[in-house]
Amino acid sequence: MVSMLEKSKKSNFKKATISEIAKLAGVSRTTVSRVLSGGYFVSKNTKDRILKIIKEKEYKPSIMAQSLRTNRTRTIGLVLADIENPFYSRVAKGVIDAAETKKYNVILCNSNNDIELEERDIKTLMGRGVDGLLLTTVALKMKTIEYLLDRGFPFILIDCKLDTPGVNYVVNDDYFGAKLATEYLIELGHKKIFFLGDRKLLSLRERLRGFKDTLVDHKIESSNTFVPQKFINMYGIYDIDKIIEYIINREEKITAVFAGNDYLAIKSIKVINDNGLKVPEDISVIGYDNIEISSMVKVPLTTIRQPKYLLGKLAAEQLFEILENRSNKEIKRIILRPELVIRQSCKRIGNYKS
Amino acid sequence: MVSMLEKSKKSNFKKATISEIAKLAGVSRTTVSRVLSGGYFVSKNTKDRILKIIKEKEYKPSIMAQSLRTNRTRTIGLVLADIENPFYSRVAKGVIDAAETKKYNVILCNSNNDIELEERDIKTLMGRGVDGLLLTTVALKMKTIEYLLDRGFPFILIDCKLDTPGVNYVVNDDYFGAKLATEYLIELGHKKIFFLGDRKLLSLRERLRGFKDTLVDHKIESSNTFVPQKFINMYGIYDIDKIIEYIINREEKITAVFAGNDYLAIKSIKVINDNGLKVPEDISVIGYDNIEISSMVKVPLTTIRQPKYLLGKLAAEQLFEILENRSNKEIKRIILRPELVIRQSCKRIGNYKS
DNA sequence: CTGGTAATTGTTATCGATTCCAATAAAATA
DNA sequence: TATTTTATTGGAATCGATAACAATTACCAG
């Protein structure tokens, strides 16, 4: 019968257990377990014999059983705000590479810029038994942070500076980066600058702060230059077409757009073009992140470079360190320095006199 | 003492176990377990009582324990060839979304276009106890396929047509898509077309076949129009700059490049520009995939659209179906139809007469 | 030769669930 | 009232590892 054939085929390969190895080697499970974890306190003789049998039988210990017993899974959770944004893909790569070298695995969730989903993802991952969490977060509720903190659950924030006690993060200096970008625009003569970004996102909030402060420093008025609430729906996702249309058609014209990230910037440029305007001739656009394609798009994007891969790699490494060395409770906060990358999406429209 | 404080803080939240719930409800673990799995054969009375306690104590069954017992983890493995290629990110999103709705989790590996790493990833994931595998594969060794097949391990290939018995896949019709692209170039008058892609990759091999056959159909000679082996290192990764340089500088000039995917195409255009040539004026370039930015790059890319999100979503759904219904051994193969998307990266250079 | 220490190995409980089978209680039938 | 059924519930084994502690053996000095 087919089903029997299939069955036998499958059971051919039922994987060996530690007990079987023990029996074959004529020792107890404990001894095999010892060999598995380095082989200290086991005589060279038996160790070699067990090792040989393990290899022969292609024995691999059951991670589920190990996890149950040790309460460690060697798995971490990574919550990405948007896997399709190349910024996050790059961060993810840094994380995955670091995990690979440390023999950890990564369970990935995509919160899709949705605060509720993000919270669900975090709980799912914790329930799944990940050892720790890496969060490229949208707008983490304080409730969620407290939830994590309360149960001493190891986690590190990526691209999200949150100076609550006990919270670790790896970020670039968003405030400084935003200052860099804004200064640059001002220097080119821009005074009417629109900040395109969702204020709910924590990283963007920092950038917004840098933006505003810089305007104030230069005594430039900045009312009416943020995304109106009506374009931000409850999931924090907004319709770029509508926003650009709104900016273009209102009376008070702007001369430059500071986009919260390159992905947004590139999309905006497309929409601006679709509306018959040119970048940078009619409107200058500056981005943030310096994702790979920024240099390849129609109008090569002037932007702020932040070390994405490093962000992910460092964050993962920090987390692993916490996990391997749980006593070490010192705060781990890393702030990387961003840089201005000048390309062609911003135009001088006057001379700035300070 | 600090350490005691911390300790107590942590243990405050040690998660409840099924036994504790059972004790609180004055029933056996078995009964609680029954409630967990639907509550059949349990009186409404006790069921409600248990449910209430579960909610109160925020009890969540330990997935590790469940997995150990049932040998199912509700986790699948996804091996991406390159997470930074937007094509794969989009596919991944489809997978993750499908998993989310079916309450599965996804462990992600990035094989980085490396055959050896891919094989290692697969084994790691199997060892990790994933229920099944989704492979957006580079160039799967037959040995690996057989390994999976032999132990009846559920897996589905994405973007990789492999008609070995027992292998399931979800792909777009690469052969047809490549024909579409090639026909289009020929129609525009191109005869010297260079196929830019690593022949080791299975999906590219199909595209290459479509490319060659179309040339033959039109009686166009096609020697010397593939990437020479010397540019393909053992990891299958090649240096685009060198290749483009090679094409441009050799005697036999080509008029068009058929890039194996958009990511490659976009990078190529940049390199072509860097070398002082223009697209499409000097060289036409056609891509494959239609990734989002294809329409936003300097020269909007003419390409072949394939339904990336759907590819991932369908593959995941197929896999879940196999997992939920293991008896159902029918082959699941889905071939989606690609389309030509004409933008501005290809120029007419003559009239084609058939 | 013997007590003591070090080296090696085994016993057994445990992690937190599921599941087969048995047991009890309640309801239905004779 | 006695006997089946049926509906609920519990007992105990099990999944595959780890770890505390106990036990055995070997080795060495006195």
Features:
Rossmann fold, homodimer, 6-stranded parallel beta sheet, 354 residues, elongated, 11 strands, alpha/beta, 3-stranded parallel beta sheet, disordered N terminus, DNA-binding, 3 domains, 434 Repressor (Amino-terminal Domain)
Write the SSE topology:
The structure is a homodimer of 354-residue chains.
Chain A: H1 2-11, H2 18-25, H3 29-36, H4 44-56, H5 63-70, E1 75-80, H6 86-101, E2 105-110, H7 115-127, E3 132-136, H8 142-150, E4 155-158, E5 168-172, H9 174-187, E6 193-196, H10 202-217, H11 240-249, E7 256-259, H12 262-274, E8 284-286, E9 303-305, H13 308-324, E10 333-336, E11 339-341
Parallel strand pairs in A: 1-2, 1-3, 3-4, 4-5, 5-10, 6-7, 7-8
Antiparallel strand pairs in A: 9-11
Helix pairs in contact in A: 2-3, 2-4, 6-13, 9-10, 11-12
The structure holds a DNA duplex (30 and 30 nucleotides).
**What is the terminal-to-terminal distance of chain A?**
88 Å
Please mark out the parts of chain A with pLDDT under 50 across 5 or more consecutive residues, or reply none: 1-11
The strand order across the widest sheet of chain A is 2-1-3-4-5-10
CATH class of the largest domain in chain A: Alpha Beta
Coarse morphology of chain A: elongated
Helix vs. strand class of chain A: alpha/beta
